[in-house]
Amino acid sequence: MTYILLIFLPSEIESMIGKLGELKFKRGYYVYVGSARKNFEHRIRRHLSKKKKLFWHIDYLLSDGRASVKKVFYVDSDIEHALAKVFEKEFEVVKKFGSSDCKCSGHLFYVGDLGKMGKIISKFSFNVFAF
What we know:
Strand content: 25-35%
Largest sheet: 6 strands, antiparallel
Order of helices and strands: EEEEHHEHEEHE
Number of helices: 4
Structural class: alpha+beta
Strand order of the largest sheet: 6-7-4-1-5-8
Radius of gyration: 13 Å
């Protein structure tokens, strides 16, 4: 299963992101592309929790009180890396974020145009996860 987290940062954030070190994130919307081979709902609830052991890069960003997940989209197919490549062509990638176990440039993208993001998502028939 592949999922997308639509994340909003109301202000610029500088944060230590695991072994990536200190990164600066602009104010605005970000898309994180991930996958869950099992326990999808548990994974999403973990992402939504502010208190957790920091393990994945996304944990570090989402544990910041200013970061908020606005929507979660999911599809029951394994298209995580193909989708990351599509987003990379359209949006600014945060290099190496969330991609330490693959050859993608990154799995977090700064989204300047929510309309364009919506068109991409609609092409893949994503569902919306209610939380």
